[in-house]
UniProtKB/TrEMBL annotation:
Keyword Kinase (UniProt): yes
Domain of life: Archaea
PROSITE patterns named in the record: HIS_KIN
UniProt EC number: 2.7.13.3
SMART domains membership: HATPase_c, HisKA
Protein name: histidine kinase
Recorded catalytic activity of this chain's protein: ATP + protein L-histidine = ADP + protein N-phospho-L-histidine
Record-annotated Histidine kinase domain positions: 145-337
MF annotations from Gene Ontology: phosphorelay sensor kinase activity
Organism in which the protein naturally occurs: Haladaptatus litoreus
Classification via InterPro entries: HATPase_C_sf, HATPase_dom, His_kinase_dom, HisK_dim/P_dom, HisK_dim/P_sf, PAS-like_dom_sf, Sensor_HK_Regulatory, Sig_transdc_His_kin-like_C
């Protein structure tokens, strides 16, 4: 399908990207409205559309590492060493910091070679990335504080309290030890939330039955029985899933007073259910909230950790009642795409 020539100009002008067409010598033949408006706003010498100017010469005038990168990429395209080239660069003004993505590619028409150069303002995305990096650094510093600056004096306090308990029969010491143990549990749970990321990692195939068996061995199960129904292969992060199952098992044993826990595959993922006291319907919307607990010595982190780790897989988790009156957690490994506002 051939697009009428009288549509190309308006089409390019409708784009928010700054776009220019160059010939095989990098001379600017045409530019769109966004390119021209950027030129006027940034005091580029007339004409703002820069038609007739050599784009490589314009870049050379900046004389910085980003300009040199752009020039090198353009010359490789002009020399037919590559078909396209992209890179991100800062373009700050005195008033505001900005970042752009430059993309250049070669095309041929009627026996002649041309280049299309586009600059996209990616400031919003870049600012979000920088904030995320700063947040990660802050979390790493907080994790260091928890794992060293708090854990070490906590261990000293626990040791001293245990020594006193050996020589003194005092209910106050029991309260102190209980509080210290709860502090340790909170630190452990907080570190779990902060330390397990998925960036740069690949998922691995892992069998559901192997995950549950391994997690079960790490939990104080007392006389509780584990049963398994249908098995399946999951594509996930085994270390994170281990924490998911361990926390769900502990929740059923310590809070739900379960006697039997059942794990099995479902059509859309897998489930973990028990025959314990269950979770009241009016409380199910709160169980994944950070800090929510119904136990005196609970940390309120367990199920929040579960939801966070499930989210890191791109999955979803929900809670309902089991057929025996306990709790049933269902994990969907292929969550349905949310409907739009038209219900489609």
């Amino acid at each position: 399908m051939q697009i009428p020539g009288n549509l190309l100009g308006p089409a390019l002008d409708s784009l928010t990207l700054n776009v220019a067409i160059l010939d095989s010598d990098a001379t600017i033949l045409a530019s769109n409205r966004a390119w021209q408006e950027f030129g006027r706003a940034n005091d580029i010498r007339p004409p703002a559309d820069t038609v007739g100017d050599n784009y490589i010469d314009i870049c050379a005038g900046a004389d910085d590492e980003y300009a040199r990168t752009a020039i090198a990429g353009l010359r490789e395209i002009l020399g037919e060493e590559r078909e396209s080239f992209s890179f991100e660069y800062p373009c700050h003004s005195p008033e505001v910091k900005r970042w752009f993505l430059m993309h250049a590619s070669r095309f041929e028409t009627r026996g002649n070679d041309y280049l299309v150069v586009a600059h996209e303002n990616i400031t919003q995305r870049k600012v979000a990335e920088l904030k995320a990096e700063q947040r990660t650094e802050e979390l790493q510093e907080f994790a260091r504080l928890l794992s060293h600056d708090l854990r070490n004096p906590l261990a000293v306090a626990q040791g001293s309290a245990k020594m006193l308990a050996m020589d003194t029969d005092d209910d106050y010491l029991d309260d102190i030890l209980s509080s210290l143990l709860r502090m340790e549990a909170i630190i452990d749970d907080a570190l779990t939330l902060m330390q397990y990321g998925t960036e740069g990692r690949d998922k691995e195939p892992v069998r559901l039955s192997n995950l549950t068996e391994s997690a079960w061995s790490n939990v104080e199960t007392e006389s509780v029985k584990l049963t398994r129904t249908d098995d399946r292969i999951l594509d996930g992060y085994p270390d994170l899933l281990a924490h998911v199952f361990e926390n769900l098992f502990r929740n059923a044993i310590e809070h739900g007073e379960a006697e039997t826990i059942t794990v099995g595959a479902t059509k859309n993922g897998f489930h973990v259910e028990d025959d314990g006291t269950g979770i009241p319907a009016e409380m199910r919307g709160k169980v994944f909230e950070m800090g929510h607990t119904t136990q005196k010595n609970g940390t309120g982190f367990g199920l929040a950790i579960v939801e966070s780790l499930i989210d890191s897989h791109g999955w979803s988790i929900s809670v309902a009642g089991s057929e025996t009156g306990g709790a049933r957690f269902e994990i969907r490994t292929n969550p349905a795409v949310p409907k739009n506002r038209f219900g489609r």
